[in-house]
Amino acid sequence: MRTILNILFLFFLFVECSKSVDPIGNGEKPPIVEEEDPVLILSNSGWDIFKATMVGHYRYGPSIIINDDESIDVWFAALGQEFGENISLTTGEGEQTFVHIDNTVTVGQKFTADVPFWSINVSCTNQGGMPSGLTLCLYRWDTDYLTTIKSPQVAQFTWFDYADNDFLDLTRSSGKFPAGTYLWIIKDGTTEYTGVWAYTGNTEGVTNYYNGTISSKSYKARYTLEKTNRTIYWDQISHQHSTNGGKQWSKEEMVLQPTEFSRDAISTCDPGVGKWGGYYYLGYTSVDDESGTENDVYVCRSKKSSGPWEKWNGSGWGGDPQPVIEYTPGTGTSSAVFGAGEPCFVVVNDVIFFYYTWNGTGTEATTTRVSTGDATDVNWPGNLTHHGTAINKSNIQHSDHCDVKYDEISKKFLAIHIASRMEENGYLVLWESDDGITFSKVGELRSKLMPYLHNCGWSGDEKGHIREGVQQYLSYAYGLTWIWGQWSTRWVPIELNRSLLRTNK
User: Fold this and answer.
1) Residues facing 295 on adjacent strands
2) Would you give the distance in Å from CA 402 to the centre of its chain?
3) What is the per-residue pLDDT across 259-311, written as a single tens digit (0 to 9) for each?
4) Quick check: 30 and 450 in contact, CB under 8 A?
5) Is 260 exposed, middle or buried (0-12, 13-18, 19+ CB in 10 A)?
6) What DSSP element (H or E) covers 12?
C-alpha cells in the first residue's frame, strides 16, 4: 500500500517523544472559569508529559494505574509504523551517500542471521524517480567472497524498475531462509541513476564489499524475520512508568501493535488497562477497513505491563485476534458511524465491569455501554453479560468517551468524559452510579483546562479503584489550535469533593 498515509507516516516517524518533563506548567495558561463547588477538583492546571511538535505527533487516550508503591504505569495511543520486524545491517553513521551501480560495479554485504528470516531488503535509489533496474542475489557464505559468488545462489530477482528510496525485498517461495551467514550482492545496474544508499563504518558482525573488496561504506540494508506486506498501521500502544507522581517518566516503549493479516491489522488504539488474577488485561479499539467506521473492541493479556500480549482469539488467548464487542448496525441505522471502542475496566467483588463507547444512530447515538463478567473465569471475554446503555451522552454536544473508576470511600462508580471535544472551550463532565450499570450526571468542570482537549483518562489502582489516601491524576490530549493530530498530553493532580455526590448530600 503506497498511499498519502504512507507518505505522512514516513515524515512523522522520525519525530521522538520527550523522555522527561519539567513539572512546572507549560503550554499556554488555561483560562480560569469560576465554578461553585465542583465535584472534581484540579489541584492546578498541571504540566505536559508529552509535547507535540508537528502534525502527526501525539499521545492520547491515557489509561493510568497507581500501583501499591504509588508508582504509576500509563498507556497511550501513539502513531503507528510500517509492518515488518527488521534487523538493521547499517550503522546509520555519517552522511547518507549515493553509490552508483552499473555493469562494471557490484556492491555486497556479508551478515549473519541467528534465526530464520523471511527476506533480505536493500534500500535502493533511482535519483528521484528516473528509470532504473538491477539484480539482487543472495548466497550462503562459503570461505571467502570469491568462493561464495561462484556457489549456487539461494535467491535472485531482477527489477526492471523500482520506486525511489524503496527497500527491495528478496524472498523465496519455499519459506524462510535458515539461520546462518549470507552474502547479498547487487549487480547489473541499468542506468546512471541506479544505486544504493550507504553510510560510513561497518556494523559489528557485518562486512561490506565494493567490487569484491572490503569497503568502509555501510550499505543501507536489513533482514526481516516474518512475512509482511509492509503496509502502514495507524496507531499502536505506548507504555511509560513514573516513580514521582508524573514529574519524570521512564523511556517510552511501544508495547502493542496490530497483528498483520488479521482483523485488527489497521490499528490498536484507545487503551484501557486493568490487572487481576495475575494478568494485565488491555482493551483496545480496531477497525476492519480504512473507512474508520464500525469499530470493534478487542482485548489482550500479559503477565507484564509492557507485554508480550496474548490477544483474545474468540475462544482463548493467543493467535488470530477476534473482537470481544463487535459493532453491528441495527435495523434502519447507518454504518457510517464510529461503532464500538474505547474500553475500560473496573473490578468489584470479582465482577468485571467492562465499559466501552457505543456510537450508533438514533435516540442514543453517543453512549457508554457496560458488560459484566466473572474475574475468576480465565476466558471471561467469551462469557460476558451485556447490560446495554450505562451512560447516555446524546444530549451533550460533541461528547467524548468515558473513563470509569470505583471510589472505595463513597462506594460509587464514577465516570468522566470531555464535552465540546477538540473545541477551544471544552470541559469535563462527571457521572455517578451505585451499581455500575446505570449512571446519573452529577457535575461539570470548566476551569484550569487546556484548549481543544479530548480523550481523557484518570487514575485508579489495578482494578480501577480510587483508594483512600492515594493521590490521583487526570490526563488528556489537547492542542493549541484545531489542527488534527498535533496533540500534547497534560498531566494534572486531582481531588474529589465527595460531599456533592448524591447519596452523601
Assistant:
1) 339
2) 20
3) 999 999 999 999 999 999 999 999 999 999 888 889 999 999 999 999 999 99
4) yes
5) middle
6) helix 4-12
d(CA 138, CA 224): 14
- Say which amino acid occupies 123: S
Report domain extents, the chain.
Answer: 4-83+229-504, 86-224
The residue written with cell numbers 465535584 in the block is: 39
In a 13 Å sphere around the CA of 419, the CA atoms on its Cβ side amount to: 19
CATH number of 86-224: 2.60.120.820
Parallel, antiparallel or unpaired: strands 385-392 and 180-187? unpaired
CB 184 within 8 A of CB 72: no
* Closest by CA position to 132, among listed 167, 99, 160: 160
State pLDDT tens for residues 131-185: 999 999 999 999 999 999 999 999 999 999 999 999 999 999 889 999 999 999 9
**Residues 6+ away with beta carbon under 8 Å from 458:** 64, 403, 405, 416, 472, 473, 474, 475, 494
The answer on pLDDT for 426 being more than 90 is yes
What amino acid is encoded at 25 in this protein? G
4-83+229-504 matches 86-224 in fold: no
Q: How far apart are CA 133 and CA 162, in angstroms?
A: 7
Stretch 16-25: mean pLDDT:
35
Q: Are 307 and 256 in contact (CB under 8 A)?
A: yes
User: 226: Cβ–Cβ under 8 A, 6 or more apart, which residues?
Assistant: 84, 85, 118, 260
Phi and psi at residue 402, to the nearest 5°: -100, 145
User: What are the residues facing 51 on neighbouring strands?
Assistant: none
Q: What is the pLDDT of residue 502?
A: 77
Residue whose C-alpha cell is 502527526: 56
State the pTM of this model. 0.86
Question: Taking the domain 4-83+229-504, which CATH number applies?
Answer: 2.115.10.20
Grid coordinates 468542570 are at which residue? 445
pLDDT of residue 5: 40
